Amino acid sequence: MAMAMAMAMRKEAAVAVMMVMVVTLAAGADAGAACEPAQLAVCASAILGGTKPSGECCGNLRAQQGCLCQYVKDPNYGHYVSSPHARDTLNLCGIPVPHC
């Protein structure tokens, strides 16, 4: 009886560990897709001043591409993201301007 109980507890522990791993992996996948406007700080001179965007700026814009409509609708970022310089920056980075 004790042996059966110990095996059942090990099985439950293994299932619990697997669940934690699945949740951790899923959270990691979502974290890569998270919208983080702070990543666009490297684009400030391009978006605000019209300078040529850096490679880092373009890379961050690509990573945040799925978030651009969210930023456009945000009153804190909308006027920056929808500005003519922002459109120029997207074009220079080869990123399509979103139609939100």
From TrEMBL:
Coiled coil: none annotated. Residues 35-100 form the Bifunctional inhibitor/plant lipid transfer protein/seed storage helical domain. Keywords: Lipid-binding, Signal, Transport. GO terms for biological process: lipid transport. Residues 1-28 form the signal peptide. Transmembrane segments: none annotated. InterPro entries: Bifun_inhib/LTP/seed_sf (IPR036312), Bifunc_inhib/LTP/seed_store (IPR016140), nsLTP2 (IPR033872). Gene3D superfamilies: Plant lipid-transfer and hydrophobic proteins. The keyword Signal applies. It comes from the Eukaryota. GO terms for molecular function: lipid binding. It holds the Pfam family Tryp_alpha_amyl. Belongs to the plant LTP family. B11E subfamily. PANTHER family: BIFUNCTIONAL INHIBITOR/LIPID-TRANSFER PROTEIN/SEED STORAGE 2S ALBUMIN SUPERFAMILY PROTEIN, NON-SPECIFIC LIPID-TRANSFER PROTEIN 2P. This is Bifunctional inhibitor/plant lipid transfer protein/seed storage helical domain-containing protein. It comes from Hordeum vulgare subsp. vulgare. The lineage of its organism: Eukaryota, Viridiplantae, Streptophyta, Embryophyta, Tracheophyta. The gene is LOC123447559.
